[in-house]
């Protein structure tokens, strides 16, 4: 093991900012300190509700696929929704606030997709506040409050909504609806996004275990009730409702009210059970179980929990680098999906993976438009994509025009879905994505005098290098995507363009002194992230063991140790595991998450030097280290191949549930 790597890992293990769970099990993450707090998104693929350390309050809510203009940077940005689950609570006319509670703790249940905050208020009450974004009912959420009085008390509880700055023209209303004997009080807020592109509506009501309390609207535009509680008798109620937008509904206000009315008729326990059942189904069809290393088990399952939280099958949505946890990178879609998150979803939740491809297929025409705009043929996918499918990268960033490997990454992801499913009907339907992206590269390459081909003036996976020629990963991804397209054409009986064959066989990848060059003229500069090493995995361009070893040894030392993103270590772990080096594979597996973990739950940050969790891209790379490295799983043209695998010394066994087309379970002892 490299001495510098050993020292770095030792420093991380003793660092005060590292995540450690003292009271824990494989399904629950506990927090007992509010210092340096980074919350977790309770998300269901449609909405993400971020936890806060403030009692009875959420931090933010994010709406998948909803974008509007951002005045700060002049481009589109994922929209924050109306926070609809917040509560003001007074006990004996004393309001509970962030600074007057004791015994605060919080637990995230990964198995059930809930977050529960517990605390005491003076010598009067103990309170539990549980929030969830309902996995079974995608546009809805619920906050469940349990109060245990330590003496006879009177409470006043009121629901209030927070409208974020990027929404305008907010209006609220409280209506008591009636249908025969049913009385249905509904509280709601409606607003518009900054440019007026979308209308956003949130509506709630209160659910009670016993007799329904009379709800009243206060002067502060809140809605609530008062109740006398008896010492020692637990009292439970909930705020439930939904948030809808005009992207999905012609009348989002009425639909959000229906979400609240539906919750009212279902009741707390039915809604909660449906939510739990939906999560249980996900875990039963795709899970990773590690015996002998509780810390690794928690982190791996937490990574899975977050990936599963950020997408829903059948929605034709994709996943942004920060999922539904923040506005990081404006919520845009990058190669982070296809290269880093998608492979894990493809292995364990293929219906989720397919949604990512549907997102790209729906925007093929915009990719063709972009190619035309820059004088090329075929389809040129944007580096950053929003709901429109047009280029959404800030205009100052060269990546938006020149980081073009994204087009090959998309094509490769489509081919890998076919190899996983062997579904020729689907391949025929999506053939145009493969063909149009291949045609783009035909128009993009430069033919050299010796008959070889180059791709000039690009930004590669190593974004520190700009205006370079023949970037290794760009050229290699083009080679692989063209070869895949040729194979797809043969399967479907489609004509093969001879130029696809010629370019795939003669596109240059440079070497120097036995090392694959990051780009033409590369001379040992620091790199942002793995580039050349990606040619061995996930690509299949470099397969010779000696070359893989040389490139690994050379480039592992070139990656920026301070600001390099988390993904590189995951890839290095896969490669070392496949080479049979369990020690280095494990070291890089740990390095793929430990420097980036933030308290109290260990949410991923993008780099060791940043605080922008949750970085789902890094989680995807870490999970690939487990599945495609230690697990021995390999993506081939015939589907998933299950090799022997290799275990870190600390692990007693590794079980991966739900792999492949037939939901195979593999166990490595």
Automatic annotation (TrEMBL):
Endpoints of the signal sequence: 1-20
GO molecular function, one term: hydrolase activity, hydrolyzing O-glycosyl compounds
Pfam families in alphabetical order: Glyco_hydro_65m (PF03632), Glyco_hydro_65N (PF03636)
Keyword Zinc-finger: no
Domain Glycoside hydrolase family 65 N-terminal: 41-246
SUPFAM superfamilies: Six-hairpin glycosidases (SSF48208)
Keyword list, A-Z: Hydrolase, Signal
Domain of life: Bacteria
GO biological processes: carbohydrate metabolic process
Sequence ranges assigned to domain Glycoside hydrolase family 65 central catalytic in this UniProt record: 301-522
PANTHER family, sorted: GLYCOSYL HYDROLASE-RELATED, PROTEIN-GLUCOSYLGALACTOSYLHYDROXYLYSINE GLUCOSIDASE
Name assigned to this protein: Glycoside hydrolase family 65 protein
């Amino acid at each position: 093991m490299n001495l510098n790597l050993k020292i770095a890992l030792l420093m991380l293990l003793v660092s005060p900012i590292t995540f450690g769970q003292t009271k824990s099990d494989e399904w629950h993450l506990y927090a007992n300190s509010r210092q340096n707090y980074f919350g977790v998104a309770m998300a269901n693929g449609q909405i993400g509700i971020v936890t806060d350390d403030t009692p009875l309050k959420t931090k933010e809510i994010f709406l998948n696929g909803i974008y509007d203009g951002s005045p700060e940077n002049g481009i589109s940005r994922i929209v924050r929704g109306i926070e609809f689950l917040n509560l003001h609570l007074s006990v004996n006319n004393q309001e509970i606030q962030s600074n007057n509670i004791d015994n605060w703790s919080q637990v995230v249940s990964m198995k059930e997709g809930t977050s529960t905050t517990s605390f005491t208020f003076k010598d009067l009450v103990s309170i539990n506040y549980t929030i969830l974004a309902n996995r079974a009912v995608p546009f809805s959420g619920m906050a469940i409050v349990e109060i245990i009085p330590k003496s006879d008390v009177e409470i006043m509880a009121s629901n209030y909504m927070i409208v974020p700055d990027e929404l305008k023209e907010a209006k609220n209303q409280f209506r008591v609806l009636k249908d025969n004997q049913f009385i249905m009080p509904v509280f709601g807020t409606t607003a518009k996004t900054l440019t007026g592109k979308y209308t956003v509506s949130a509506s709630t009501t209160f659910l009670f275990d016993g007799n329904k309390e009379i709800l009243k609207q206060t002067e502060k535009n809140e809605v609530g009730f008062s109740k006398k509680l008896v010492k020692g008798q637990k009292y439970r109620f909930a705020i439930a409702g939904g948030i809808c937008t005009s992207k999905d509904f012609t009348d989002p206000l009425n639909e959000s009210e229906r979400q609240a009315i539906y919750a009212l008729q279902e009741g707390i326990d039915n809604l909660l059970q449906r939510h739990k059942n939906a999560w249980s189904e996900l875990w039963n069809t795709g899970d990773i179980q590690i015996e002998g290393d509780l810390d690794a088990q928690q982190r791996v399952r937490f990574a899975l929990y977050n990936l599963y939280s950020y997408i829903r099958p059948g929605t034709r949505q994709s996943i942004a680098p920060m999922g539904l946890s923040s506005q990081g990178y404006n919520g845009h879609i990058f190669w982070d999906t296809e290269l880093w998150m998608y492979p894990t979803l493809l292995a364990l939740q293929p219906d989720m993976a397919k949604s990512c491809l549907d997102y790209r297929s729906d925007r093929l025409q915009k990719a063709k438009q972009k190619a035309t705009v820059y004088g090329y043929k075929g389809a040129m996918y944007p580096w950053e994509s929003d709901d429109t499918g047009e280029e959404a990268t800030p205009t100052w960033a060269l990546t938006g025009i020149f980081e073009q490997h994204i087009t090959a990454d998309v094509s490769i992801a489509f081919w890998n879905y076919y190899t996983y499913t062997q579904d020729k009907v689907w391949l025929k339907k999506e053939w145009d994505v493969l063909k149009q992206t291949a045609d783009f590269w035909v128009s993009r390459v430069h033919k050299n005098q010796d008959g070889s081909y180059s791709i000039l003036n690009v930004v590669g996976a190593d974004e520190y290098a700009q205006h370079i020629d023949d970037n290794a990963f760009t050229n290699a991804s083009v080679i692989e995507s063209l070869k895949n397209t040729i194979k797809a054409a043969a399967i479907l009986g489609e004509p093969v363009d001879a130029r696809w064959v010629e370019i795939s066989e003669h596109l240059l990848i440079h070497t120097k002194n036995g090392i694959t060059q990051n780009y033409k003229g590369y001379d040992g500069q620091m790199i942002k992230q793995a580039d050349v090493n990606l040619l061995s995995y996930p690509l299949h361009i470099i397969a010779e063991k000696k070359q893989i070893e040389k490139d690994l040894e050379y480039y592992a030392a070139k990656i920026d140790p301070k600001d390099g993103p988390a993904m590189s270590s995951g890839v290095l772990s896969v490669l070392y595991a496949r080479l049979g080096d369990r020690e280095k594979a494990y070291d890089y597996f740990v390095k793929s998450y430990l420097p980036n973990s933030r308290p109290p739950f260990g949410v991923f940050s993008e780099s060791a030097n940043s605080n922008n969790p949750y970085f789902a891209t890094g989680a995807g790379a870490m999970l690939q280290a487990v599945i495609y490295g230690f697990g021995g799983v390999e993506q081939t043209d015939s589907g998933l191949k299950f090799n022997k695998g290799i275990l870190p010394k600390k692990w007693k066994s590794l079980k991966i549930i739900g792999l492949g087309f037939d939901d195979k379970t593999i166990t490595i002892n």
